[in-house]
Amino acid sequence: MTELPELIAVGVGPGDPELITLKGLRAIQSADVIFTPLSREGDASIALQIATPWIDQERQRLVSLPLPMTRDAGQLRPAWQAAAATIQQELTGRQRGVYLLLGDPLLYGTFSYLWRELHTAANITVKIIPGITSFAAAAAAGGVPLTMADERFVVLPASYETDMLTLQRLLNDFNTVVLMKAGTALPTIVTALQQLNLLDNALYAERVGLEGEFITRDLRTLDLQHRPYLSLVIVRRGGWL
């Protein structure tokens, strides 16, 4: 029986190429085709930049998958379907492909949507290799324990947590709150922290592991209007070590 082509989603971590897992590294190096998501035509893939030291571009084929940065399902679903069709076409006659993603493939990653489209394809085997998350790397770099003993911990998409009362309730209900992709939501987050007297319990991080990495516990002097998409806030009511 002929072995089916295989697609492996590899989380390459937050930015530092040395934070790719050994299993992920082996998958990347043994792949015939490397797939990378692009938010717009011509954009450089950060995931590809991270994995580049481990890729043989003379032997391995690089394929970009345009995926729009929008919440409009009318635009997204056709893009996911087109990407799935491209993957199936590229893997015809080849044994293995990898799909590179920042952080972990199943944590607010593009792969979950693509996986849904590929699920109906009986001619491809899909596997997933987890990656180190940006908030785990930020906590390590900033010296912040994420949880201890019986503490409660939650990870939230900051751009969706725009209701002040809801955000304050979450900050009160959990010992540690991680707010991912905080950029445009930062003014709301800081206001909520000020009102709850938690500003000294927060750590801000952007571009973790990448060029331009910036991590601070001083949110009072932070320019709240011009922060990048790849940013996060960790709030810990238990304080620091």
What does this structure look like?
Helix 6 crosses helix 7 (186-195). This protein has 241 residues and is of the alpha/beta class. The protein has 7 helices and 10 strands. The protein folds into 2 domains: 6-129, Cobalt-precorrin-4 Transmethylase, domain 1, CATH 3.40.1010.10; 134-236, Methyltransferase, Cobalt-precorrin-4 Transmethylase, Domain 2 (2-Layer Sandwich). The chain has helices at 22-30, 46-51, 73-91, 111-118, 134-142, 164-173, 186-195; strands at residues 6-11, 33-38, 61-66, 96-101, 125-129, 153-157, 176-180, 202-206, 214-216, 231-236. The protein has a 5-stranded parallel sheet with strand order 3-2-4-1-5, with helices on both faces. It starts with 5 loop residues before the first strand and ends in a 5-residue tail after the last strand.
Can you lay out the helices and strands and say which pair or pack?
Blueprint lengths: L5 E6 L10 H9 L2 E6 L7 H6 L9 E6 L6 H19 L4 E6 L9 H8 L6 E5 L4 H9 L10 E5 L6 H10 L2 E5 L5 H10 L6 E5 L7 E3 L14 E6 L5
